[in-house]
Amino acid sequence: MQSHGSLADVPLRSLLESAQGERSTGTLTVRNGNGQSAALYFLFGHLFHAQSDGKAGDDAVVTALHWTKGDFEFDAKAKLPADESVKAGIPELVQTAESAPSVPGAAEPAAEVEAQPERVEAHVDRRDHAEPERKVEAPQPRRGVKHRPQPKHGREPIPVPAGQIIYDSLKTSFVDFPRLITTLEKEGYTGYVRLLTDDASGLILFREGSALECMYDGAVEAGSLVLGKEALQRFNDDVTSGHGVLDVVGLSPELIDGLYELTVSRPMYTELYAAWVDMKALLKFLSDRKLSGSVMIRSQAGTGVIILSDGDIAGAYTSESRDISDKPDRALALCDDPAAMIEVKSADATKHPPLDVDEIVGGLRAPRGAQVSAPPPPAPVAPAPEPVLPTNPTIPVMPAEPPTAQIPTGAYSNYTQPTPPSMQVAPTTPPPQRNSGPQLDWAAIVGELQAMAEDALGNRARKVKDILGAADPSLGGVEAAIDQIPSISLLFVDSSRLEQLAQEMRARLKSHL
Fold it and tell me: pLDDT (tens digit, 9 = 90+) per residue, 105-114?
């Protein structure tokens, strides 16, 4: 994806198609040269959010597609927002823009442009900082996530720094884990995937699409950390069972290498008390030796980590402040505690093979192309057959309907002669009406179903909530909206679990009838 250029040379349509084809992740900012700008957000080539001057979603994209002059910038390291406002795919957006006339004044200065462009510009200005000095916010729970688990014992396999947040607080009960792993492998992803449950925490380190190592800590006892295949098996079991949430965070290769060595390498120096050590002299010594590895400082106030690459500091952070810095000051401040313990690890000269992910999750992977299509929903369970009264065996069998809509067979007990379906005489006892509209508060029922979607999907629930909100306020309308849910395409969300959500909504709807 081209990092910057002119819209006159590279139109926005080409940029969108390029981002989709290259499966780019980041923020594309376009400006028309007259004070208007738009920010478009991509995740693995999926355009999921856009905002412009007073517009958002599809409208913002279509408006920007009419701009023929101006410039653009693409920031692959920008933090992605939680909002998901773009409903249509890129081909549909391009077709809409081509078939619609240019918005009057779209290429002219707009008097009503106020704070929105400034917010976009402020976002762009942050990219001017050098990467080592960049302050990255620690992952925060996304909107709609009501509970972000923390292990009861409070530990994590190793302290990890903040980085480029691809996703945080993805509910495992709705994540297609094999699909997520496959995507990270194909994209040559470098970073970590973290699992947090109420009882355990896990970490998978990726470098250029390969899973280097997996760590899992699920017990209260000290020294319970497990690595490798066993750790990945436990990690996968928790995700498959729907326990906890996942974070996907990108890091530089140097930091991932340092975290890997922090995990697997044997200590070069260990159990060094801060009271004995001149830390600045130690770091200079390691720099002179061109050491690649890590320095860890443990104190009552927290844990500090300094990652070294050929003697240079690739990054430093602490468990209390996860921002990555090129200066070790915050980590070294922990040495003010004379009882703090210092450990130095050097990169292992022996290259360990990457984890065999297929051995654990391979059986769950289905053959997938570049675009994953939703599998067909499971066949509906046939309703129980209606009892046939022996006194009237010639009554015609009516077409089967869902259990909530069946007409009681007792109402036909007085029939003496069958009537053709087209001339069916209404039974003397009126059946329950499928649409008891005036007696039901459909707005409250839809709100309840939308809350179910938000609780299950977090910020990924927007499409489901929109479909429910647009439903006709009747039983048939709401049922039709629920039937659409399994066919919705949501990134990393398994369609079979959307079917499960739809089934739960049908049960909830039935309880109101």
Answer: 444 444 343 4
Spatial distance between the Cα atoms of 484 and 490, rounded to a whole number of angstroms: 13
Long-range contacts of 59-62 (CB under 8 A, 24+ apart): 60/85, 61/16, 61/86, 61/93, 61/97, 62/93, 62/96, 62/97, 62/100
Round to whole Å and give the CA distance between 469 and 484.
13
Helix (H, G, I), strand (E, B) or coil at 368: coil
Nearest to 65 by CA among 35, 103, 33: 103
Residue 239 neighbours by CB under 8 Å, 6+ apart = 172, 175, 177, 195, 246
Q: What is the pTM of this model?
A: 0.51
Amino acid 417: pLDDT:
47
Q: Measure the CA–CA gap between 140 and 149, rounded to whole angstroms.
A: 12
pLDDT at 363: 58
Going across the sheet that includes 245-250, the strands are: 164-171, 245-250, 191-196, 201-207, 210-217, 226-227
Low-confidence ranges of the chain (pLDDT < 70): 82, 101-147, 152-154, 219-223, 350-351, 362-438, 459, 489-494
The helix or strand, by DSSP H or E, that contains position 328, with its residue range, turns out to be none
293 backbone dihedrals φ, ψ, rounded to 5°: 165, -140
pLDDT at res. 490: 67
Pick from 190, 161, 246, 171: nearest CA to 76: 190
The pLDDT assigned to 399 comes to 41
Q: Residues with Cβ < 8 Å from 78, sequence gap 6 or more?
A: 26, 27, 123, 126, 127
Looking at residue 11, what DSSP letter applies?
A: -
- Phi, psi for 270 (deg, rounded to 5): -140, 160
> What is the distance between the alpha carbons of residues 209 and 233, in angstroms, rounded to a whole number?
19
Q: Distance between CA 372 and CA 180 in Å, rounded?
A: 11
